[in-house]
Structure formats: structure tokens, C-alpha cells
Amino acid sequence: MNLIDISNAIETGHTSLGIELGSTRIKTVLITEDFKTIASGSYNWENQYQNGIWTYSLEDVWQGIQTSYSEMSAQIQSKYHKSITKIGSIGISAMMHGYLAFDKSGKLLVPFRTWRNNITEDAAEKLTKEFNFNIPQRWSIAHLYQAVLNDESHVSKVDFITTLAGYVTWKISGSKVLGIGDASGMFPIDEKIGSYSPEMLDKFNNLKLVKKYPWKIEDLLPEVKKAGEIAGKLSAQGASLLDPTNKLEAGSIIAPPEGDAGSGMVGTNSVRERTGNISVGTSAFSMVVLEKPLKKVHRNIDVVMTPDGSAVAMVHVNNCSSDINAWAGLFKEFATRLGVHLPADKLYEALFLEAAKSDPNAGGLVNYGYQSGENITDIKDGRPLFVRTPNSKFNLPNFILTQLYSAFAPLKIGMASLNNEEDIKTDVMIAQGGLFKTQIMAQQVLSNALNLPITVMDNASEGGPWGMAILALYAKDDHGLKLSDYLDKNVFTDSESMTLSPEPEGSKGYEEFIQQYISGLSIEKVAGSLKGENNA
């Protein structure tokens, strides 16, 4: 589209809005009906550790959404001299899982318990055994059942539980719904019926400690919808929540809200069988769309759904890039003391390029970037930890490579079950996330770590909110196509990508690193037992 066409699309509402609430950033993206981004806005935020819980306040949720929306609107006004009054369709995505519980009046009963919390081990183990289906600690049903086991006073008052994306969608539309991908992180889904498993709902309701409560679990959960269905319409109140200036009109079609995994699958065109994607950020996860059911239950593998309802094997790790970002901040502070002011992209580029000069095994250095506990490696409490021996080759290239190596280490360990025990194959594995803004280095390290070819698309750092905007367009008009065909035939017709294959020397060096990493996990466990602000 040219400037005049885009201006007309803005004025007539032939646009789609995607909002994604990630762990460190809320981002708003506006696209036209030819899938091109025309404006975006963002808001940085951080989770808080309060009373033993990783959480975000609901006030911050709306401040972040409004700030990012306002920034996007300002870009439109500046470039096209138009105010946004109409938007054709809107989609909300957010961090998957966690626990938001409300009473009948819509009051939040306890602070939002995010995916990052490792406080539901007892519940997750019991439910996995009861269901014969893996229930991770971060899933909503694990949080609810742990609250039951703890005999928490709020449980008897629960009227509705949802995820962060489901909460925002509820508030802007009045609809208590969830996309099937995000719903599959609340409670197990029966792929054949496209909704919560009736057998497991009954099993949960019949648990001895659950029976005493006045509710049934199916009455607490959001309605499940697949991609292409309509979740509701933007209400007048919802329009004011997004745009407090009250220029935005009600009536936009609302797509079924999804988790960041679902929007990531769409943003990387990875919803068809034998496709897979990896998303890296504060946390990291790999997703492989399954051709057939898993042979057995794996505690390191979640079975979730694509936005259109196909089974996916998911490996989710709690820690990825946080420690890299912390060290980068330290280097930036040092540079500033020297009078050198480096933008973030230049800083990361300089550091990552330095890693190209490293030894393949990172010189014997080891790092544990555990800002929080890590289920994959059975670490209860996180303590970022850098370890070296007197004989390690301690220099800047090896140090930076160690940070990249450690960022992908839990994912490497978690994916071993997929590769070694299930023999799952993919035709393509596409990666996305901010680490790939700096071309080649992080992508090559990931390829060496997993010993797989890794593809990065030209939208690798912005896939989530853009993917959600695509899902919103699909909800408005699916053109009679399955989601996979819609993406192939309409969205990804001219996308650019680059694929890197494992380097033999690099893969060998990473295997040396990972063996040291695994053998040293006992150090991390001891460090986690030390009293600090996260477990005082």
C-alpha cells in the first residue's frame, strides 16, 4: 500500500490491532489488511516478587496497554495525520498460564500468580498422576489445586479463573473466552472435541478436597474458541480502556485471546504438522506440532494446542535472557563511565560479535542464568551464578559465549526427551525473539546447542503482537481457509528468512559445555538454599 491507501485504511478502520503483554514489554502493533505493520508502541515493565509470589499489578497492565497504544496512535498521527477512530479487528495475547482468580463481583481475589512461580509442585505432581497427563507447575489448574491443598480462604469465593490475555479480553469485550492454545495451558484439552477434557474435568471435580467447594471446575473456566471464530466485540468501556482519549469507537471484532506461544506460532508460520518454533526472551520455549500422540507422559514436555486446535509438544523453561540483559547493563554502565553512550542494539551487537572469537567450549566457563527457579533442572530458587576454575580461559569472548550457551542450556536439556525418547522430527524449526536482532551469532549458537538447523525470519524480534494482529484479521475473515493455508497463501508469500546449520566444532564445544553445566547443577542448588530477597 502507498501512503494514500494506508491513510484511507486508517480512516475507514481496515486495520487490525495486536497487543501482546510479554514478561518485560507490552507491545501494540497496528497492521493493514495486507499484513504490513504501519505503527507500533511499547511499554517496558518488570514482574515484582511480593510475599513469595512473582506478580504484576493489574494497574500496571492497563498503564502499559494505554501507554503502548498511545505511542502507536502518536506514530499514526505524526506520519499520516489521522486519528484512530475505527479498528476492524483486535487480538490480545500475553504470557501463558498463571492464575488470575475473581469472585462474582469481578474482584481479583489474590495477586496475579505468573508462570514464573515454582510454588505448585505438590499439586502438579498429584494432578499428573491423577490425569496420567503432564500438568506443569505454571498451569492454571495446578495453581488452583495448590490453593485447595493449602486450604487458602479465597478458594471458596472463586467464580472465574483466566489467563492474562483472557482477563484483558474480558475487560474490553465482556466475553469470558480464551483461544484454544491459551486454554490448553489452563486445563488439558481433548483434541477431538476442541475443548476441556470431560474425563479430566470429572476427575478433578471428584477429588476429595475439591468436593467441599460450591463450584464445579468447568464453571470457573473460560469458554474455548479456535482461531477464526469471533470472541466478541469491543465495548464502549473497552474502547476507553485502550484509548482514554475516547477517540476509538466500539464495535471492533475481537479474536480469541492467545498465549504468547500461540501468537508466536502464527508469527513464525508454525501451525502445520511437522513444523516447529522456538521463542526466546525472559523465558524460552520450543513448540513442535505433532503428527501423532506422544508415547508416554513426560514431565519436561507439555501437550498444548495450536490456535486452531492441533496438538503441540511444548518444552518450556523459566530462564533464558535475563542474565544476558543484566550483564549487558553492567557493560553499558562501564561504557557510560568512559563517556561512551551505546544504544542497546549497538551494545548487544558489539558483545555478541566478540563471542565469535571464543573457544568452542567457552574456555571451561559455566554460567547459570537462573533469575527464578527452573523446573527443567529441578532448581527450586534461582540464583544467577557464574563459575570458573583457576585454569579456565577467562576472557571477554569466552564470557559472552558462556552467557549465550547458558541461556539455551535448560531448553537443550528439556528437548532431550523429544529427540531421544519420542524421535519427533520437524521439517523446519524457526526461532524468534529479541536475541536474534543481532544477526547470526545467537542463531548459530542455538543451532549448535540443539544440533538442528535454525531459521530466523525477518520479523524475528516482533513476531508475537504481529502474529496476534494476523489472528485478529483471520477472525474477521478467514477466506474459507484453514489457518495453515491462510498463512501460507496470504501472509508468508514473500517473507525473507535465513537458515543456519550446526557447525561440527561448535556443536562439539557445546556438548562439552553442557556436560560441565549439568555436573555443576549441585552448586546452583546450594546457592538457591542461601537466604536472599527471593526466599527470605
TrEMBL record:
Keywords in alphabetical order: Kinase, Transferase
GO biological process: carbohydrate metabolic process
Carbohydrate kinase FGGY N-terminal domain segment(s): 17-240
GO molecular function: kinase activity
SUPFAM superfamilies in UniProt: Actin-like ATPase domain
InterPro entries, alphabetized: ATPase_NBD, FGGY_C, FGGY_Carb_Kinase, FGGY_N
Domain Carbohydrate kinase FGGY C-terminal positions: 277-475
Annotated family: Belongs to the FGGY kinase family.
Name of the molecule in the record: ATPase
